[in-house]
Write a structure and sequence with these properties.
Largest sheet of chain B: 6 strands, mixed
Largest interface: A-B, 31 and 27 residues
Order of helices and strands of chain B: EEEEEEEEEEE
Structural class of chain A: mainly beta
Mean pLDDT of chain A: 93
Number of helices of chain A: 0
Radius of gyration of chain B: 13 Å
Distance between the termini of chain A: 33 Å
Strand content of chain A: over 45%
Oligomer: heterodimer
Number of strands of chain A: 11
Low-confidence stretches of chain A: none
Shape of chain A: globular
Helix content of chain B: under 10%
Helix content of chain A: under 10%
Order of helices and strands of chain A: EEEEEEEEEEE
Amino acid sequence: DTGVSQNPRHKITKRGQNVTFRCDPISEHNRLYWYRQTLGQGPEFLTYFQNEAQLEKSRLLSDRFSAERPKGSFSTLEIQRTEQGDSAMYLCASSPGTGVAEAFFGQGTRLTVV
Amino acid sequence: QKEVEQDPGPLSVPEGAIVSLNCTYSNSAFQYFMWYRQYSRKGPELLMYTYSSGNKEDGRFTAQVDKSSKYISLFIRDSQPSDSATYLCAMGTTDSWGKFQFGAGTQVVVTP
């Protein structure tokens, strides 16, 4: 499968715990994006990377959230001290690079904070 | 007011009918436009991508962009039950290639 891969697919955690999600983009795609989607809403932008550089972050990305893309390959999104409001689908997407906006999404990681 | 507005539906059509979906937007800086299909509990799947105004056709799908009216449409011909899903519009500007604004999605139900 050469699409965007996200792991885990589902995560249930207790409030206050830390969680980390992983995204493997399509090979040779320079840009990688993280979005969050809640029930009945469209995805909301969180952050994106051009290779290993994090170019933009949404104000939705509070201090408890951190994203990395070491070596410009896979990316991780960590949420510290999870809250019930963090429960959502976390989506990762990738695209070839500057001048091409076509973004391909993974299947998402569904986070439930209890 | 949201930058991108999309009727949530549900939109119910009989099999074989044309499905007509649309989004309106307020930011005149949007230059590229996408339509995604999303099945329940799955990630969005890219259907159509267009840059600037005009029409684009791909199989049973036609995307239209009218920048003067800030209005985009997606038409699905010969609809099938497998087209039942939520359809999301997304758009962005060339000075921020990675940041897309999505509509809330329209749920489509195609009945056999």
